[in-house]
Amino acid sequence: MINIIKQLEELTGLTPSELGKALSIRGNTSTVDSGKLIEWQEERSLLPGWAERVATQWIIELWQNEREQCGAGDLWKTDTKYSKILSFLTMADIVDIMKKHKITNNNKPNGS
């Protein structure tokens, strides 16, 4: 199985410390220290369910943002990249998360 925390770090370019803070903010939980994040990346400890959900949602947001910015000729490449990362999900899971994301984004000022 692909390590979703490693993938998120690669996609965002954030350091483990920055990524831990961002996951904590997105998950509305206490700050994840970089040591714990590294344990999750190296699979030395189990990734909590909340962190997996938050990371998955974030990757889907990145996917949608990348799709919106690329040309029609690059959609296949973009979709393939992200579908490999999220291969542990069914398409129904992904569609459900995308719907929730769209609803959330539509409720924000200026769609941001």
Order of helices and strands: HHHHHH
* Proportion of strand residues: under 5%
Number of helices: 6
- Helix content estimate: 55-70%
Give the helix/strand class.
mainly alpha
User: Shape from CA axes?
Assistant: globular
**How many strands appear in the DSSP assignment?**
0
Largest sheet: none
Which consecutive residue ranges, at least 5 long each, have pLDDT under 50? 107-112
Q: What is the end-to-end distance? A: 32 Å
Mean of pLDDT:
83
Radius of gyration: 14 Å
What does this molecule look like?
The protein is mainly α and 112 residues long. Helices cover 69% and strands 0% of the residues. It contains 6 helices and no strands. It has helices spanning 4-12, 16-27, 34-41, 49-69, 75-85, 91-106. Helix 2 packs across helix 3 and helix 4 crosses helix 6. It is globular and about 40 Å long. The model is unreliable at 107-112 (pLDDT under 50).
